[in-house]
Amino acid sequence: ETVIENVEKHQMALRSEVLGTIGTFTVDDVEGKLGRDNLADKIQDAINMKLEDLEGFGGVEGVHFTSFVLQ
User: Fold this and answer.
1) In b/e form, how buried is each residue of 36-67, taking b as 16+ CB within 10 angstroms?
2) Confidence class of residue 48 from pLDDT cuts 50, 70 and 90?
3) Quick one: pLDDT at residue 1?
4) C-alpha dihedral sign at 21, 12, 68, 66
5) What's the pTM value of the predicted model, to 2 decimals?
6) Do 29 and 37 contact (CB within 8 A), yes or no?
7) How far apart are CA 63 and CA 20, in angstroms?
């Protein structure tokens, strides 16, 4: 519950971290399940690091994509 509150409270900062992380990947990097899993892991790490900076702890246990579009 506290993690959800912290995510909602810092939504803009976390969104910036997510976009920054996504920007480091190429289309080739995220093709296939392994590539998407790697991206999800990196997003989770980025979110948790930012939450640790802002609130003293992370707590996000996973990142799941509801859809995935490559352009």
Assistant:
1) beebeebbbebbbebbeeebeebebeebeeee
2) very high
3) 82
4) positive
5) 0.92
6) no
7) 15
Type of residue numbered 2: T
C-beta separation of 40 from 62 below 8 A: yes
Tell me the two tokens of residue 66. 């509801």
pLDDT in tens, 6-34: 999 999 999 999 999 999 999 999 999 99
Alpha carbon distance 67, 58 (integer Å): 25
Distance of CA 26 to the CA centre of its chain: 16
